[in-house]
Amino acid sequence: MNPLLQTDQLPNFEAFHVEHIVPAVETLLSENLAEIEALVSIKEAPTWKSFVEPLEQLSNRLERAWGPVGHLDAVKNSDEWHQAYSDCLEKITDFYTQMGQHQGLFKKFQQIAESAEFEQYSLAQKKVVENALRDFRLSGIDLPKDKQSEYKVLSQQLSQLGSQFGNNVLKSTQAWSKFIENEEILAGLPDSAMGLLAQLATQKEAYQNKKGWLVTLDFPSYLAVMTHADNRDLREEVYQAFATRASEMAQDPQYDNSENIEKILKLRHEKAQLLGFEHYAELSLATKMADTPEQVIGFLRDLAKKSKPQAEKELATLTAFAQKELGIDTLQPWDVTYASEKFKNATLSLSQEKLRPYFPVTKVLEGLFTITETLFEVSVKEKQGVSVWHDDVRYFEIMDAAGQKVAAFYLDLYARENKRGGAWMDSAISRWRHPEGALQSPVAYLVCNFTPPIGDQPACLTHDEVTTLFHEFGHGLHHMLTEMENFDVSGINGVPWDAVELPSQFMENFCWEREGIDQMTAHIETGDVLPDDLFEALQQSRGFQSAMMMVRQLEFGLFDFLAHATYNPIAPQPVLELVNQVRQEVAVIMPPDYNRFAQSFSHIFAGGYAAGYFSYKWAEVLSADAFSLFEEEGILNPEIGVKFKNTILAAGGSVHPMTLFKAFRGREPEIDALLRHSGIKAA
After folding, report:
1. Which residues lie below 8 Å from residue 579, measured CB to CB, with a gap of 6+?
2. Of all residues in the chain, what percent are helix, strand and coil, respectively (each to 5)?
3. Mean pLDDT of the 574-587 span
4. Percent of the chain surpassing pLDDT 90
5. Burial class of residue 574 (count of CB atoms within 10 Å of its CB; 0-12, 13-18, 19+)
6. What is the distance between the alpha carbons of residues 124 and 492, in angstroms, rounded to a whole number?
7. What is the second-level CATH architecture of the domain 3-100+102-138?
8. Among the four residues 333, 560, 597, 672, which has the most C-beta atoms within 10 Å?
């Protein structure tokens, strides 16, 4: 049997081969279509049991077979696998479009919504039906046949363009590297970074017999150079390579995404207008908490207004320091990270490298799990012997207070070749009650790109990497600690995108508190927890250049939203022009003309954040305010932890996030906690 179709067990990654993909997808889709036609043809009035439950079974099987294909495209990419994935993505997109425009399905859901049975449904069941009816309308169910065909073509093209965009970023990132034989060029890099670059060189066949160091654009390597390299020319060269990835300005322009961006924005606009929306930003908000484009733009601009004056002061202070202490007359973008690290060390006696030995991976994981166990009344245990896609990957199970398994997750922590950059959580299996009664427990993929162990030295994380791990684990908890049993509102399914970041950003807060730090630090040589002087410096550093970081995020959010909200099909504004316009308004650091950040902005052109990047800041208002209850009642207060689990995490997508927030906090959210955590004085 095709191993991808064995969906009653965990994925058998070692057994999956590229030739399995197309037959598995074709079999699955034809069986699903046949089953759907059979369901629709039943004469009797539909009920939850006769209609919705069988549909949930089909959704579950599709997730469990197709999910690993997309996952492996991201973590173990090859040209052959990506080609098969792209070919099938077309079929999958086609299937979902067909389902979204299926009059028979739509009518059955309408019948259910109008039935007497509907009144007896749980909140979760009602939400499943309401979301389905909304999604039919957002898939063009009300359109005439010719317009439905147009919608189908647009969806197909957008799906392919998004996949191509992401693949171009990966390929372009890997196309550039610099082999260095003269150690002096790398002066300033700490031993951990030198070890990483030496290891990267030995992994490349071309350099195996040479002594040297390989700089790549994978994030651990890029960041090491930008933070520590004394050689300004090297920093500029690496910055330019990174800032021009997947563009016409790249050293290898074959992966240029410029045309893809133009096509994506054009087709999204057409899709939105086809559905009766003014522009794509309006369509995006149809499934989010935020009500109107004006509200989102106002929110971002208000935060920018509060943050920019402080960001300008922070930059002026850094510029003065760089001139006086580092001899850098004109501070350039490739100097900012380097000068900031020196400035932080000079003013706070703190650097990422000073903190790193206190955060060995094993201790950080132990701390993360202890905090999770204390707050949410669960335990986390590693399980051996589970099929994985790489030797670095580990598998853990989560048990409830009675020792019953409630969830599990794969953990893939380190950067490597042929693995997409960034960090993310994805669903491997969703929590769901089978019609015959069995409860399927959820499984998550947690993926990061941290600096790998060097030689036989255990891996130690920077504090930034620690907060990233907690962030992704927060997404994982949202997926894994759900108590929903209906597929479409289980875990993060059905959660508005501008609320999905609440649990992830909430978890980051524990990385800044003494109670959390004590659980996750043990010096690699002495075993000591982080001492008070370093902890105080760490806490002070939370506000270090926080306004500069805030306006950087607002630049991304505003560019994304305006690119979709102000799109003019007759005379589209050049993307570069819009980027510069947004920078003039909110940014304090002006990059060089060759900078092409949009060409590698995968979140919005290849991910789920189109006209939705504002969600990070929107949800941070909620997460900071939610965490302030722990600040009031006790950072590791189990009672408040269980309350958070039973409201925010348990409900999945079954209840509006604002209702859940108010149930947890007892009031509407306030922005004060976000500004306080960010070290920004409310103007």
Report:
1. 559, 597, 598
2. 60, 5, 30
3. 98
4. 97
5. exposed
6. 13
7. Up-down Bundle (1.20)
8. 560
- Taking alpha carbons only, the member of 468, 345, 339 closest to residue 414 is 468
Length of the chain: 683
Task: State the catalytic residues.
Answer: 472
Rounded to an integer, what distance in angstroms lies between the CA atom of residue 603 and that of residue 208? 35
Which pair of tokens denotes residue 549? 């970081």
For residues 619 and 580, is the Cβ–Cβ distance under 8 A?
no
* Kind and range of the H or E run holding 245: none
Domains of the chain, residue spans: 3-100+102-138, 176-255
What pLDDT score does 681 carry? 77
What letter does residue 14 receive in the DSSP assignment?
G
Collapsing DSSP states into helix, strand and coil, what is residue 399? strand
- The structure's pTM equals 0.95
Those residues whose C-beta lies under 8 Å from the C-beta of residue 177, and which sit 6 or more positions away, are 204, 214, 215, 216, 217
CB 286 within 8 A of CB 138: yes
What's the pLDDT tens digit per position in 277-307?
999 999 999 999 999 999 999 999 999 999 9
How far is residue 637 CA from its own chain's centroid? Answer: 28
**Nearest by Cα to 605 from 253, 258, 242:** 258
Q: The tokens of 236 are what?
A: 């500029």
* Whether the predicted pLDDT of 190 surpasses 80: yes
Is the Cβ–Cβ distance between 366 and 519 less than 8 Å? yes
Task: Report DSSP letters for 494-533, one per residue.
Answer: T--TTTTTHHHHHHHGGGGSHHHHHHH---TTT-PPPPHH
Dist. CA 490–CA 651, nearest whole Å: 8
In the numeric block, which tokens belong to residue 628?
A: 């302030």
State pLDDT tens for residues 528-538. 999 999 999 99
Query: What is the DSSP pairing of strand 443-450 with strand 405-414?
Result: parallel
DSSP 454: P
**Which residues contact residue 581 at a Cβ distance below 8 angstroms, ignoring those fewer than 6 apart?**
none
Q: Which residue has the tokens 């670059």?
A: 197
Please name the helix (run of DSSP H) or strand (run of DSSP E) that holds residue 598, with its range, or none: none
Question: How many CB atoms within 10 Å of residue 331?
Answer: 20
Q: pLDDT-derived band of residue 209, with 50, 70 and 90 as boundaries?
A: confident
- Token pair of 111, please? 């019948």
Residue 613, both tokens? 């990047």
In the chain, the N- to C-terminal Cα span, in Å, equals 64
Spatial contact of 541 and 507, defined as CB atoms under 8 Å apart: no
Query: Which H or E run includes 392?
Result: none
- What is the longest distance spanned by two Cα atoms in the chain? 82
Q: Which residues is 427 bridged to in the sheet?
A: 444
Q: How many CB atoms lie within 10 A of CB 445?
A: 24
The residue among 393, 392, 421 whose CA lies nearest residue 408 is 393
